[in-house]
Each structure stands twice: as structure tokens, then as C-alpha cells.
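ARCHIVE CARD
Drawer: 12
Card no.: 0347
Subject: one protein chain, sequence and derived structure
Cross-reference: see card 0346
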Amino acid sequence: MTNNPADASELPSGVDPNAPAGTIEERTLAPGKYFPGVPHEYAIYRPAPRADGVPDGPLPLLIALDGTSIRNKELVPQRLDALIAAGDVPRMAAVFIDPGVLPTLSGKHTDGTYLGRYDRSYEYDSLSPRYANFLAEELLPAVHAEIPLSNDPNDRAIMGSSTGGIACFLAAWHRPDQFRRVIPQVPTFVAMRGGDTLAELVRKTEARPLRVRILAGDGDHLSAAQPWGTFYAGSWPNAAQTMYEALKFSGYDAELDFFEGDHSTVLAGELWPDAMRWLWRDYPAPLESHEPPARGQAGWDTRGSVWETITGIRDWQPMTGLPAGRATGLAQASDGSVYASLDDGVYRVALGSTGAGNAASAEAAEAAGTRVLPEPAAVLAAAGAGRLVTADPARGGLTVWDLGTGPAADSGAEGPAGRTILPDLHVRAACWLGGGDLAVIDEVAADAVRPITSTEAMTPGSAAPGARRAGSVTAVLRVVNLDTGAVRGEVALPQKEASALALGADGSMLIIADAEDRNQWIYQLDEARLPQFGAPFFRLETYDDWGGSASATFDTAEWAYFATPAGVQVCEPIGRVAIFLAGPVVHHGVDAAAFGGADRRDLFIVQDGTVYSRRLTTQGASVDDPSILEPPGL
């Protein structure tokens, strides 16, 4: 069908009855993996054929959420006809997609309007990357099969109104590899499914290469009797202003247009053509990330600033010299060496102060990638500068390797010898404490640990408050002396899934990370190096079901770095998240983190089985510093 209505006498602004009209074709997207059982109705807009008859090559694309509403109320297809005809935007295709509905088996209405489970809020308001991945991996391939589309994210725009307004921003936020031009209209950056926290995440994260134009009503969900807002989720205008300020704070190319009106998509549609011209100005120049222009000027605050921590925007580099294979954990040695476990063994991926320098620098990159152990390690810890400890939870026991006793494992000669101790331990994580001691998280049956009340002291051999129920698996922290092979003490842990350990710069604070909960625990070590006075001290940010940490490390200022499904979250010593360092693939999590290099100023991570590094201004802690080898004596 064509777009322009027959009666052109009452056309709204931005619609040109003389513009060649594109066509609309309706489709149904079958259920996929992201929303099982849920089909999605959508329509494809094709621009009018070129006047010269030349076929189109790969086209830019606009995606409109709440597609039927935007087609009918905001007349986006007709306005797009006019913009293309005037040369204000490039020739482009468009997709108008509606939220999914899971039909009821009975066919009855569930709320008087929709048949079945209406997924709009679940899809649009959720902070996770689920809907963004659905667009990128299920919708776009279906459209691409019918229309040749450009694969350049600079050629993609996305828009939505109301709840679709936050969804279109989240799609670009999670998938800047797919979408970079964004128009949220009367958006819901409010407390529905966590949208009120999104502006905080924008402030804490280095800017993505996005361009954003927000269209908002100055009276949205306000009334004369309730000028502070009529809805439980907050004030729509204030939330739009807060998001705009966060974008500007972080250096984005962003604008906010307030119109006089309420939650009106029709009034937002009146502003939409100008927003599109602004969004596509200077096309085809690519969009790029920029640091805030205020950086370094009077009043610039460096506290907890991601811009004072990084040395370049998203400058992750894959580590060279490593064979194909999936890396898992990382271990950082006190001299700055970093080791990674791969499928066929343990590799040194960064050289320390005794090696050829910083592995992240060009001259030292060739020296990385040396295989030092002949077998992979499910758990890995560096015990000082010259020893590694490995463990396999399924097989049991700890193996202590002295890297100074033999040639490297890939040299063709016999590799270092391993000494196995404590074969009954099933170690999940380990951390070097100095002074010959290693802290390990050991999996045991919960009924082997005596539960105690929250008022009892946490002493060696006792259980912690909240110990897991009988018959389940819990975790016990044991302090092991590697020289004698003895367990010096043990403490049961209350975490849902104790997953990682990290020692602070002064040797007195120990993080015990939890892979299933946003709250991360920190303990003080007593004179025997056993943890006491634990608290869920660090509160991580989450994207819906994205919670917990699989790895942690400290810098010399006692800032904690947590590898999480949302990237590396950096917490101030007082426990708040101040900085987000997204990995090279921003919508994928980070599985491990460690500082390394000759000066320990390079942060190494594992993402999707690959080891990456980037230079930071901060410096990783060294637990073997002579000033902290003695017990804390607290």
C-alpha cells in the first residue's frame, strides 16, 4: 500500500502530498530464542523508486518500535517520504515493529484489549540486552532477506515513543554495533523496571558512539493538582531532563526538545522531522565517541571519573601470541605477570618487572603468549612472583608449580614440576595472601557446617549467618599454607555463590565475590589471616537478571574492580560503583579481571574466551609488597 492519504487538504506538518510515496508491506516474525512462543507483527517500508531508475544498493534503516501506532498516529512513513524527497535524509528503508503477544490457549482476553500475555513492558522497559539482541539477531536478518540493508551501524536509526522511547535508547546503548542514531519520544526513563537508574549508568560509563535527540512533553503525566507527577513511576519531564544531563555530562552529541503538552505522540511527531534532519546531519560522516568538552576546565571534578581512569576511549586490545582456545580465569602475580588458563595449558599473557616490560606495549607483545604449564587449570592463582597454584574442582586437590625450577612448557624440554597437596579440597577460587598462605574457596556439603545466628562471632571453624540449607552445596574459605600443606583455619561463607577472592593493597581486606547476587562481600583479616566482620559492602549495578561477579581485583588506592555480566564495575573504597568499563563487546559480560604489566597499570580481562588489555591511569595492587607481608595485627 502507498503512504499518502487521499485527502491532502488537512495534512499535518512534515507531510508533502507531492513526494513520491514509498510502500508498506506487513509481515509476521515467528517466535525465536529471545521471546519463546511470542510472534511479532511488523511492516517494511520501501522508499519510492529512484527517479533515474537505478536500483538501490544497501540502504540505511530506521526501526520504529510500537510500529502500528507510529505509522498511524505520527505518520512517520509519510513524513519519511517528504524527508527523502527533499534530500534531508538519505534514502532509507524502515521497519515498524509491534510488541509481542503470547496468545492464550483459550483465546480469551486477559485485560479487555489484548489476547494473551502482552509483552510490551517486559520487552521495552527491561534494562537487559534481551530486546536489543532480538532486534539485531532475529528481526534484522528477516528484513535483510527481503531488502539489501547497510551493515554499518552509522546507517541505522531507531525510534520509539513512551515505553518504546526507553527501549530504543537501550537498543543503541547495548548494541552500538547495530544502532547509533536514536530518537526517544516522550520516553519513560522512570521507575518501571529500573529505567530511573539508567541515567546513572550513562554517567559512570565512557560514551558510546551515539547521537540522541529526546522529544518530551513539558506536562507529561502532570496535572494542576499533581504538578510533581501523577504516576507511581516518577516525573516523566524530570526523568527526560535527568537523562539529557547525563548524556551531556558524558560527552554525547545529544539534544532535548520540550514541547508544550502531555504524553502526546502526535505532538512529538510534529517535532520528528526536525529531529531526523538533526540526527542525519553531516551524513555519511561516522559517529564517534567523545570525552566531555568540560574535562579539564574550571570546576571539572575528577572524583570517581571514568575519564580520569582510562587513557583512550574503548581502547581494548586482544592479546597476541595466544593460540586458539577459550581462556577462563586470570591470575596476577605480584611482579606484574598475568597468567591465563586456556584449553591446552596455562599461558603467561603479560610480563612482569623481571621480564621484557609491559605486555600491552608494542615492543613487549611478542614476549607474551608463553605456555608455562602443560595442562589447563580450572582455578588459577599466583603465589608470589615465581609460583602458580592450579586446581580442578572435579578432580580435587591443589597443585603448586614452581616456575623457576624448569624450562617453559612450550620450549621442548621438560616443564616445571607440580606438587599436589590437600587432595580432598574441591577449590572454586583462590587468592595469594602472602607469607606462604593461600586463601581458597572450597565446596562442601552444607550439613557439614553448623549454622549460627547473626549475633554470634565469626570465628575460625564456625559457620556464617545465612549458611545454605542442609543437603545443598555451600562454600568454606580455608587458609592453606603452601609450604607445609596444612589448613591453618576455615570459615563458612554466607554467599549465594562464592566465586572469587581478591586481597586489598594493604593486605588486611579480602573480597569474597558472589556470582549470583549484586552485593559483594568484604572481610577484615585477623592476625591469623582469617576473615572476620564480613559485610555485603559493595553494591553492584545490574541489568535485570545480570547480577553478581565472577572475578575481582584491587588497585593501590583500594578501589575494587569486579568482572560482571555488565562489564568491569569499579567501586570506591566506600562501596559505591563509580565507573563502568564495558568490554570490547559491550553487550557481553566480562568473566575475569586482573592488573598486570611491568608497572601494573594494564587491566586484563577475559571476554568470550579471549584475553584483552587496556591501559589505565590506576595501578594494580601487589600483595607481595614488603610493607604488607606481615600479618595485619589488627
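Annotation on reverse: The chain has two domains: 12-279, 306-628. Residues 355-366, 445-472, 626-634 have pLDDT under 50 and may be disordered.
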